[in-house]
Amino acid sequence: MSAEPIIDLSAVRKFINTELLYREDQQIDPGTNLIENGVIDSVTLLRLISFLEENYNIGIPDHEIVPDNFRSMSAIEKFLTAHVGAPQSGQMAK
After folding, report:
1. Are 19 and 47 in contact (CB under 8 A)?
2. Helical ranges in the chain per DSSP H
């Protein structure tokens, strides 16, 4: 039985604070809806996805770029847990 990877979200929090909110001191509650609160929109979602792909060495297929996967820190953690270390079959070469 393999254990789920432990995802360190500190880099994600720092990215959201400094690159999306432009406030390093902002605390983000794991359940806060980042979309409804205007933190993530269509442009910032693309920036976040690019960051996640680079930082966690994963490929995120277009069909998985849906609001439910990036709505909150908890949703992002769940998404990363499912993808970090998972085989990247069918992924386009970068």
Report:
1. yes
2. 10-15, 42-56, 67-70, 73-83
Rounded Cα gap, residues 4 and 22, in angstroms: 32
Dihedral angle of Cα 21, 23, 29, 34, to the nearest 10 degrees? 0
Q: What are phi and psi of 45, to 5 degrees?
A: -65, -40
pLDDT tens for each residue of 4-46: 667 888 999 999 999 988 887 778 889 999 999 999 999 999 9
- At the top level of CATH, the class of 28-83 is mainly alpha
pLDDT in tens, 70-81: 999 999 999 999
Domain-wise residue ranges, the chain: 28-83
Enumerate residues 6+ apart whose C-beta is below 8 A from 91.
59, 61
* CB-facing half-sphere around the CA of 55: CA atoms within 13 A: 16
